[in-house]
Amino acid sequence: MEFGPHLFLATLEGAIGAAVLALMAVGLSIVFGIMRVVNVAHGEFYMLGAVIAWWITSLIGGHPAYGFLAALIVAPLIVGLIAALADHLVLRRINYDPERTIVATIGLLYVLQQLTLMTFGADARPVEAPFNKRLALPWFENGADGLAMYWPWGLSTTTYKLAVIVAAIVVLVALWLLMTKTRAGLIMRATQLNRDMALAHGIPVEKVYALVFGLGAAIAALAAVLVVPIQQAHYLMGGDPLLLSFIVVIIGGLGSIPGTIVAAILIGMSDGIISVFFSPTLAKILATLLVAFVLIFRPQGLFGKRIS
Amino acid sequence: MLNLNNIEVAYDNVQVLFDVSFDVKAGEIMCLLGRNGAGKTTALKSIMGLLPLKSGSIQCEDNTLSTLSAYEIPKQGIAYVPQGRGLFSELTVAQNIEIGLMVKGSNPAVREHVLDMFPRLRERLKQRAETLSGGEQQMLAMARALSMEPKLLLLDEPTEGLQPSIIALIKDVIVKLKNEGVAVLLVEHHIDTVLSIADRVAFIENGRCPEISDIANLQNNQAKIRGYLGIS
Question: For B170-177, which contacts have Cβ atoms below 8 Å and span 24 or more sequence positions?
Answer without folding.
Answer: B170/B138, B170/B139, B170/B142, B171/B196, B171/B197, B173/B117, B173/B142, B173/B146, B174/B29, B175/B29, B176/B117, B177/B146, B177/B153
